[in-house]
């Protein structure tokens, strides 16, 4: 493989890694703060893409307004689901949350499929990126699509901003306190329920944002999150369950590793991330950035 082709694969890997990072970050926020295994994350990613598409079809909204509105819509839907369904399972075995969110995933995918067929007569639809991000950029050592560079940059900014807010600000301290020791937090007059719901909304909103960013690259279709979510769970495990920084770093790293590995030896493309996960768990069961169980 020549150098230019290798660099193209690295950048393609960074694009995939951007989606892994945003999705695994949302999962890490939800699991780390609420101990919820949210299998619906892939369906919410798809809903972000579908919401952007539907907003364009119904109201003529372009990419930029949809980039803001679609994640908000997904976040609000997630908050409603958390209050009406998931909150009833707190304190029970995590498998109940997993089964519920898995069922909601199947329901959501089929509803979107039927809606697209009945209203647009298609099961998959392209989504046009904004004109300002059309074309390519010559980086000197490689020519790469401008929109894909935007995806890498924006996702990195969002991931770092999320990490900073949760780990370094007063709001982040309240969120951590509300989930780690809710009794003491309530004693200080803080409404823990609202903070928990808000955290869940932020987590699923990140999935919705990833979906909007993915729509111009992968098109909009009901099952677009089905395979991606499996890899995303592997990324979360490799980085360390609940680790914000681990999700971001591992997401981008896995994206690059999978892209380069697929170019060097295509048969291993679909299994490389799971081989890596197995090796990491053998050496460090808590993940690369996770704390050992006794240290939590």
UniProtKB/TrEMBL annotation:
Keywords attached to this entry: Amino-acid transport, Cell membrane, Membrane, Transmembrane, Transmembrane helix, Transport
Record keyword Membrane present: yes
Source species, domain of life: Bacteria
InterPro entries: ABC_transp_permease, BCAA_transport_permease
Transmembrane segments: 6-31, 43-61, 67-86, 147-166, 195-217, 271-291
Pfam family, one: BPD_transp_2
Subcellular location: Cell membrane
CDD domains hit by this protein: TM_PBP1_LivH_like
Family: Belongs to the binding-protein-dependent transport system permease family. LivHM subfamily.
Protein name: High-affinity branched-chain amino acid transport system permease protein LivH
Source species of the chain: Deinococcus carri
